Amino acid sequence: MTQAVANALDELPPTRRKLDRDDWLMRGGICLMIGWLGLTLILPLWWLLSKSFQNQGGDFVGLDNYIQYFSTPALFASVWNSLFIALLSTAIVLPLAFTYAYALQRSCMRWKGLFQGLALIPILAPSLLPAISLIYLFGNQGFLKEWMFGVEIYGPVGIVISQVFYCFPHALMILLAALSMADSRLYEAADALGASKTRIFFTVTLPGAKYGVISAGFVIFTLVMTDFGIAKVIGGRFNVLATDIFKQVIGQQNFEMGAVVGFVLLIPAVVAFMADRIIQGRQVALLSARAVPLIPKPDSGRDNGLFVFCSVVGGLILVLLAMAVWASFVSRWPYNLSLTLNNYAFGDFDTNGWSAYYNSIEMAAWTAVIGTLIIFLGAYLLEKTRGFKAGRNIAQFMAMLPMAVPGLVLGLAYIFFFNARDNPFGFIYATMAILVVNSVTHFYTVSHLTATTALKQLDHEFEAVSASLKVSLLRTMTRVSMPVSLPSVLDISIYLFVNAMTTVSAVIFLYSTDTKLAAVTIINMEESGFTAAAAAMAVAIVATSATVKIAHLLITRRLERRTQAWRQR
Amino acid sequence: MQEQETPARPKPYLRIERLKKQFGNFWALKDISLEIFPGEFVCFLGPSGCGKTTLLRAIAGLDIQTSGRIFQADKEISNLPASHRDFGIVFQSYALFPNLTVAENVGYGLVSRRMRRVEIATRVTDLLRLVGMPDSGPKFPAQLSGGMQQRVALARALALSPGLLLLDEPLSALDARVRAYLRMEIRHLHKRLGVTTIMVTHDQEEALTMADRIVVMNQGVIEQVGTPLEVYREPNSAFVADFVGKTNLLPGIVVRPGLVRYRTMDLSCSLDIKPGPGSDVTLAIRPEDVVVRNVDANAENTFAVRVAEIEFLGSFCRVGLSINGDKPALLADFSINTVRDLSITEGMDMLVGLPSERIRVFPGAPKQL
Fold first, then answer.
1. Cβ of B71 under 8 Å from any chain A Cβ?
2. From A9, A245, A391, A525, which residue has the greatest number of CB atoms within 10 Å?
3. Hey, are the CB atoms on B99 and A2 less than 8 Å from each other?
């Protein structure tokens, strides 16, 4: 019937809409976004891929490098090592983080705010920090070395413990969100039907948080798989993919083999990313608008049990943190435990001294400012305009890609791409700019999703109203959408700042002597045996991130108070 | 409507020609043609998914049609973007900018017009007075009730004195009382300003009370265009009869011109019957047209029924009547007076009549709803 109608009436030509200034602005903006991600993500990765098919002279050698890789047991063993570490860490973190999140969201335990704050601190630290703390605790000169019963902390044990510490807050955040909303009517119904608490947990609670658990699992797996710093510091002779890339590229200057390992590392990250996307796509809204929020009721047995659990987990986090802080102030571990500030005189340990720290701040600040601008604008155009479907789809797809690309792989790709002889953008190589560009792109996806979520909450007709009032898109964005989403804009900039401050893997290949970063100095100083100075630098980074984060909280709170008049509802 | 019948009919303000809109494989609008005259208040009425909002958005240029032409004030606007068209729009969600005050919202379009600040302030004050909220300028939208927010949205839409006012289900998000009140307000405003207005609604009562003309839509086509009275009294399809007001739709077979068999009864219909003898038809009669007073057993279209159920609806009762002891087959609305005078109670047997000039006959058996 529809076909008949269509055929019978196909007389008038299709209407082609004329474009106004806003349309051109939108198209231009989306093209710029595609250009940015193409230049800073797609092309470098393409260069990396082509490099892996070349020999050192730059001739195409087909799969030779790959064949060599898979037939060298020493190299290939890293694949299994990495998978083993990633799976084990995931298996440990998931239940811990789930129980912790459950305690925070679904119990009447005491000191919830304190426990939540404590558990999220590791996010502000470079991944190296727990590894350094572990060395102080259980390393060759660790004061709890006997507790290890002769098992070396350098190797898989140290890596897994550090990864658990490092990944815990990332998983916790996802699970907190997954457990934050629940329909109390479901629980009342289950109760009324006489279901036991265990049965309710397995039939109502767990299914409700299923997608969060799966997502958290993939996030941990990918984080561990692609993290470089921990394995470098505490891995000993235990090789993983991330350290292999480093060894091939920096140690042996074998860029082609580095590219091969990079691509091998990209595979699990991409697979995990796609699997998560597919599974999340199946998620349907479990909570209707009419849901009645669940408010946990006191239950002394459960609450006390969870309190003990959280105290233990939180305590361990605190111990690792405190260890690094303490170690950074100790004169000469373990012989002279008197306190000193000497370890913070970074100039004595590394030629860059404090300048590396200031470089980090500068880099993080630029990343926050430029990144927030680019990412919010891009998200705004994709979310709030219509038409230009082809460009829109490409941009949307490209915005999701950075999540699947490990920092180390991106960094390596940048070496190839920006170092290429004919690249007109080659001038940014070995400058602060390349570090900023790399960080913006590396952390693009999460920021993009944050911006998109915030923008989705705005009325969809703002732009339609503006068009009817002949007001330009830009004005409506700056006058309405941006101010209303200001809390999310701040969230994004803080996320970018903290990540740029703490990242190692993305920048380890890209710094020059003038632009060396704090997190990189940690590795250098640790390598040179200045573990206390490394700990001090890690503490300096945590302190900076924490200060920025607290300032952010205060600003957000003030902002909310100031805008109360129009936010109240 | 008389205008259309006089030979020198006025020029339409808005002319829509063969408009079609496709979403994937789905045709949301199938060849829509329509004319709207200056100063008219027109309602697009239909169930959700009938294409009424799609049509409105095409007129606004917010979602351009797949093909077809639109003329506004003699100018073709078919392919113009929304920003180049002349209209004001009000949405169900109000879409007020939450971080701007009421005055800033109303003046939002004026600011970019290079108007002097004093002029803007005066215009905003006038507009706020127009919608009956002279003192609300410094407030934020969140501090206002839904009805007040919608009035601000209306003032904002009128700020640039548009030639066409588009209202997309403006009252659907409001409480019943506020809705009834605002209905009159918008109507008065329209009378005062005379701006050509199109309102989309799924609420037939809203359309009947507010519109000069109603455009009834279903599945991407226009079922009927007419004044509220025409659409109600002379629906030209079973769909319209059922969607606008309450209607009994009964299955029948044409016996001969003017006579239709319903069950075992032959009912005469004074209106023209198009389908030939033997074809399936749908008989439509409104509940309020079922007669119970002074019914003569020997008159045409009269038969015995039993009162199966009575639903009290305030000023009248809706009575379910069963024929031959079956489930209720016919609904009738009796005034409270009638119910009292005839002491109608459940289980009672009585005679009812269906006036032959009130029965409408549509081709095809009734669709199961």
1. no
2. A245
3. no
Q: Is A169 inside a domain boundary?
A: yes
Does B140 sit within 8 Å of A468, measured CB to CB? no
**In terms of pTM, does the model score above 0.90?**
no
Residue A309 scores a pLDDT above 80: yes
Nearest to B108 among A17, A23, A471 (CB): A471
Choosing from B224, B241, B258, the residue where a domain stops is B241
For residue B160, list chain A residues with Cβ-Cβ distance below 8 A.
469-470
Residues B64 and B208 in one domain: yes
**Which domain, by its residues, includes A233?**
72-283
User: Cβ of B79 and A16 within 8 Å?
Assistant: yes
Enclosing domain of residue B155: 2-241
The verdict on residue A403 lying in a domain is no
Chain A residues lying within 8 Å of B80, measured CB to CB: 17-18
Interface contact flag, A2 B27, Cβ < 8 Å: yes
Task: Looking at the complex, report in whole angstroms how far the Cα of residue B204 sits from the nearest Cα belonging to chain A.
Answer: 25
Is B368 within a domain? no
B197 and B250 in a single domain? The answer is no
Work out the minimum CA distance from A454 to partner chain B, whole angstroms. Answer: 14
The Cα A448–Cα A36 span in angstroms is 14
**Residue B132 covered by a domain:** yes
Residue of B57, B97, B105, B195 to mutate, testing the A interface (most A Cβ within 10 Å of its Cβ) = B97
User: Which residues of B, range 153-212, sit inside 8 Å of A by Cβ?
Assistant: 156-157, 159-160, 162
Please indicate, yes or no, whether residues B235 and B287 belong to a single structural domain of this protein: no
CATH number at residue A87: 1.10.3720.10
* Count of CA atoms in the C-beta half-sphere (13 A) of B19: 31
Same domain, B267 and B325: yes
Whether the CB-CB separation of A126 and A502 falls below 8 Å is answered with yes
Which chain B residues have a beta carbon less than 8 Å from that of A488?
A: none
Please name the member of B18, B61, B87 whose beta carbon is closest to the beta carbon of A9. B18
The answer to whether residue A162 sits within a structural domain is: yes
In a shared domain, residues B114 and B205:
yes
How do residues A156-202 score in pLDDT, each as one tens digit?
Answer: 999 999 999 999 999 999 999 888 877 888 888 888 898 888 898 88
Helix (H, G, I), strand (E, B) or coil at B31: strand
| Domain CATH for B9 | 3.40.50.300
Q: How many domains does chain A have?
A: 1
Q: What's the sign of the alpha-carbon dihedral A434, A439, A445, A448?
A: negative
Q: What is the DSSP secondary structure assignment for residue A14, as one 8-state letter?
A: B
Single-letter amino acid code for the residue at A49: L
CA nearest neighbour of A544 among A369, A416, A311, A358: A358
Closest CA to A349 of A503, A523, A130, A230: A523
In a domain, B369, yes or no: no
The dihedral built from the CA positions of residue B201, B205, B208 and B214, taken in this order, carries a sign that is positive
Please report the residues numbered 35 through 64 in chain B whose beta carbons come closer than 8 angstroms to any beta carbon of chain A.
Answer: 60-64
Residue A564 φ then ψ, to 5°: -55, -40
Residues of chain A neighbouring B141 (CB-CB closer than 8 A): 566
Contact A15 B78 (CB under 8 A): yes
- Structural domains counted in chain B: 2
Q: Are B20 and A9 a contacting pair at CB < 8 A?
A: yes
Question: Both B323 and B253 in a single domain?
Answer: yes
Q: Which of B212, B241, B270 delimits the end of a domain?
A: B241
Q: Between A and B, how many CB-CB pairs are < 8 A? A: 127
Contacts of residue A524, defined as CB under 8 A and 6 or more positions apart, other chains included, come to A350
Furthest-apart CA atoms within chain B: distance in Å: 79
Q: What is the pLDDT along chain B (369 residues), one digit of tens a residue?
A: 444 455 566 889 999 999 999 998 899 999 999 999 999 999 999 999 899 999 999 999 999 999 999 999 999 999 999 999 999 999 988 899 999 999 999 999 998 777 888 999 999 999 999 999 999 999 999 889 889 999 999 999 999 999 999 999 999 888 888 898 999 999 999 999 999 999 999 999 999 999 999 999 999 999 999 999 999 999 989 899 989 988 999 999 998 888 899 888 888 888 777 788 888 999 999 999 999 888 888 888 898 899 999 999 988 999 999 988 778 889 999 999 999 998 888 889 999 999 988 999 998 888 765
Backbone angles phi, psi at A5, to 5 degrees: -60, -45
